[in-house]
Design goal:
Layout (H helix, E strand, L loop, with lengths): L2 H13 L7 H14 L12 H20 L2 H24 L11
Helix pairs in contact: 1-2, 1-3, 2-4, 3-4
Length: 105
C-alpha cells in the first residue's frame, strides 16, 4: 500500500460508523510506512501536502476517539502522528538547511 492508497482507505474507514471498520489494520499499515520512510531516496513531502492531508485524518481520528473511546481509533491516531513525524524527519535530514543536516556523524 502506498501513501495515496493508505490515505483513501483511512478516509473511507473513518467515514464508516460501523465498529467493523479496519482501523487496526490501517494503523499497522501506517506504522509500516513510517518505518520505511528512511528508505526513500529523495524527499517524500517537500511541499507539505502529504502532512496536511494526514493531519486532517489525524484530527478526524481524534474526534472519533472522543466520541467512541475506541482503542483502535486511538492506535490509528497515534500511528498517523508517527507517520507524519517520520516523513518530516526524513525530509528534514535531506534538507541541507534542516535540523538533521547539522548533526555530525
Amino acid at each position: 500500500m502506498n501513501l495515496n492508497e493508505l490515505h483513501a482507505a483511512i478516509s473511507k474507514a473513518l467515514a464508516q460508523t460501523s465498529e467493523t471498520a479496519p482501523l487496526h489494520g490501517l494503523a499497522i499499515e501506517a506504522e509500516r510506512l513510517a518505518d520505511m520512510t528512511g528508505w526513500a531516496i529523495g524527499p517524500i513531502d517537500p511541499q507539505g501536502r502529504i502532512a496536511a492531508a494526514f493531519e486532517l485524518l489525524k484530527l478526524q481520528a481524534r474526534v472519533r476517539f472522543e466520541e467512541t473511546q475506541s482503542p483502535e481509533v486511538a492506535q490509528l491516531h497515534d500511528a498517523l502522528g508517527d507517520l507524519i513525524n517520520a516523513i518530516a524527519s526524513h525530509d528534514d535530514d535531506l534538507n541541507p538547511d534542516g535540523i538533521g543536516a547539522s548533526e555530525d556523524d
